[in-house]
Amino acid sequence: QVQLVESGGGLVQPGGALRLSCAASGRDFSNFVMAWYRQAPGKARELVAAITSDGFTNLAAYVKGRFTISRDSGKSTVYLQMNSLKPDDTNVYYCSADGRPHVAEVYWGQGTQVTVSS
Question: What is residue 13's predicted lDDT score, i.e. its pLDDT?
Fold first, then answer.
């Protein structure tokens, strides 16, 4: 059974930092693009950051310079280091694993809440 389990969310003050983790299991994810998305109530889910199996990264403009995405050498755990957090970063953050075009498989985690507030 494939699972993506996020952790590390919580409440943090503006200017603070959090590190999200996503542990993927149940199949080989080494060729998958791993990514973080976020979604606020009533809004569309948006890409925050993505990382390929080769380590190439893509970050949304609004997090460049503040967030960093990385994955472990086994390629099944992905991290999102979030620094200089702002109230606008308050969202539910979702981990995804996308196997396209190699395999037509996309998986999602259950989400973790990040709240930035004083």
Answer: 98
Long-range contacts of 82-86 (CB under 8 A, 24+ apart): 82/17, 82/18, 82/19, 82/20, 82/114, 83/17, 84/15, 84/17, 85/12, 85/14, 85/15, 85/16, 85/17, 85/18, 85/114, 85/116, 86/14, 86/116
Which is nearest to 37 in space by CA: 96, 89, 90? 96
Range in 22-26, 44-48, 49-53, 71-75 the model is least confident about:
71-75
Classify burial at 61, counting beta carbons within 10 Å of its beta carbon; exposed 0-12, middle 13-18, buried 19 or more.
exposed
| Mean predicted confidence (pLDDT) in 1-20 | 97
